[in-house]
């Protein structure tokens, strides 16, 4: 069983920064066994995989629209996941979710149904 709790959302102006956190509680498999991914969903749009980080080596991948602006990281000792978001744009406005998948991330990391465990989401609003 895995429980995920996001925090750190808020309202910022375009060009600003926010850092999202996801506190992960696990039982059974250890946290470092899980592929971790940030998704987002804007009003009227489909859910989108934003960034992913592999279980142990910490390899990362990003959707093109955030490359160079967002950085995903994890602390396997603290069971934490982070998303540093810089140079924010109004189109980054969405609810951001962290999600966990047991095993390697793989090429289909952006596919939401692959993930069994989800947080409740945190709102990010970027004004122009």
Question: Tags for this entry?
Answer:
51% strand; four-stranded antiparallel sheet; 128 residues; 11 strands; globular; single chain; mainly beta; 0% helix; seven-stranded mixed sheet
Give structural notes.
Strands 2, 4, 5, 6, 9, 10 and 11 form a seven-stranded mixed beta sheet that branches. A four-stranded antiparallel beta sheet has the order 1-3-8-7, with no helix packed on it. The mean pLDDT is 96. It contains no helices and eleven strands. With 128 residues, the chain is mainly beta.
Number of strands: 11
Mind summarizing the main beta sheet? 7 strands, mixed
> How far apart are the termini?
40 Å
Based on secondary structure, the structural category is mainly beta
Topology as a string of helices (H) and strands (E): EEEEEEEEEEE
Average of per-residue pLDDT values: 96
Anisotropy-based shape: globular
**Which band does the percent of strand residues land in?**
over 45%
Overall radius of gyration:
14 Å
What's the structural blueprint in terms of helices and strands?
Elements: E1 2-7, E2 10-13, E3 18-26, E4 34-41, E5 48-53, E6 60-62, E7 70-75, E8 80-85, E9 94-102, E10 117-118, E11 122-127
Explain briefly what this protein structure is.
The chain is mostly beta strands.
